[in-house]
Amino acid sequence: MPLKNFHSARLHSPDEYKENPDWSKDNGKFRTTEGKKAVVAGAGMFDFPKNIELIWGQLKTQSGETANVQSLRFPKSDYTKEQAIDFLLKNNIDYMKFEPAKDDPENHDTNPKNKSIELTPFESSVLKKCLDKIEDTTSFDDVVGLFTVNYEDFILSFDRSEFLALKRIIKKL
């Protein structure tokens, strides 16, 4: 569910977490901290800025004092939606879902024919690189009547953060 003042990046499904973590004194499922060092998928150990909230929980497979970052919250006063996504992509932080801060519903066009996808500057540069690389590695085979691609050259030209960006672009479509 979108939040009013925060863009949110869900790293793991809430269903993966205990309802009552072993370390919880008031039976709350999650805890929030502002900025902190944490291990996150893709980036490894990462020192988050103080203005990013980390939502912690205890995975069903964990016990004791162990906690895991479930999601990240970016205050919309400090981050645009694009800046938050760029932060995630540039730092190789794997996330399963991104929800921009809740806007005024009157500002949304509900006609699906008028929808377009919004790309961050990083996503735009990755998409351009992808299209250029497709042109460089693709040729038309007159005998078979099909296009062929040198997949190895294509795949090796992208780093991890660029692949994650391409994945998100495709999901937006």
Please report which band the strand proportion falls in: under 5%, 5-15%, 15-25%, 25-35%, 35-45% or over 45%: 15-25%
Total of helices: 4
Give the strand order, joined by hyphens, for the main sheet: 2-5-6-1-7
- What spatial form do the alpha-carbon principal axes imply? elongated
Low-confidence stretches: 104-114
Count structural domains: 2
Give the end-to-end Cα distance, rounded to a whole number of Å: 21 Å
- Taking all Cα atoms into account, the compactness measure Rg is 20 Å
Could you walk me through the main structural features you see in this protein, from its secondary elements to its overall organization?
- Helix 2 packs across helix 4.
- The longest helix has 17 residues, at 121-137.
- 21% of the residues are buried.
- The chain is of the alpha+beta class and 173 residues long.
- The strands form 3 sheets. Strands 2-5-6-1-7 form a 5-stranded antiparallel β-sheet, with helices on one face. A two-stranded antiparallel sheet has the order 3-4.
- The chain has 2 domains: 6-102, no CATH class; 118-172, no CATH class.
- It contains 4 helices and 9 strands; from the N terminus they run E-E-E-E-E-E-H-E-H-E-E-H-H.
What attributes does this structure have?
173 residues, alpha+beta, 2 domains, two-stranded antiparallel sheet, 4 helices, elongated
Map the helices and strands.
Layout: E1 6-10, E2 31-34, E3 37-40, E4 44-47, E5 53-57, E6 68-75, H1 81-90, E7 97-99, H2 121-137, E8 138-141, E9 146-149, H3 151-156, H4 160-172
Antiparallel strand pairs: 1-6, 1-7, 2-5, 3-4, 5-6, 8-9
Helix pairs in contact: 2-4
